[in-house]
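Practice problem: predict the structure.
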Amino acid sequence: MLTQPIISSKAKGNGGGKMARILVVDDEADIVLLIKKILQSAGHEVIGAGSGEEALERLRGLRPDLILLDIMMPGLDGWETLRQMRGQKGLEDIPVAMLTAKPLTAETAGRRDIEELVDYIEKPFTKETLIQKVNYSIIEDLDRIEREKSRLLSASGDRGMAAAYERAARRERLHRSMVATLKESLSRTEDPGERSKLREAISTGQKTLEGFKSYIEELESLTGKT
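Answer:
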């Protein structure tokens, strides 16, 4: 659960975004610095960590609204950092997006732990695409989900239902984003074997996406939303 609305109206920056506290985890210091500059220019508070170990240490006293996590790091890689994070009290539901040079493959999309993420963002990126992704895709979606979660809780008094909605809505937006990324990969790939895997992953992702959409609509209908 977010401790406060993830979007604050206090700070506006380039791109029309609003402020969130973001932890950036990458073993390349220049990448951390670049991302910090880009997101700070959009009005965000940005904290950097140079490893998975440092990120976990920082999270002992930090509650970010969003974590951007690299996969390929020495020591704890992104997936192991995510696993350890989810095993610690208070860190179970902090939104995490992978921000990595590792392309989203059919195999990666099929990982069980992929659903611990809210997004999978591929490098390279431009200033404009990163701000667009963070501000208007991730942060606004998470804020919308939090508002609807609060509405469901107020209407039903059922914390379990509200929590189930939040989990499903986050996963729905993850699969929506991943299907779009996989389609982009398919358009760039000529290898027949890889194209076959990507088509299968897209089909699976679309079915999963529809399942989450139906479940979310069912939960919302129980409290009178049409």
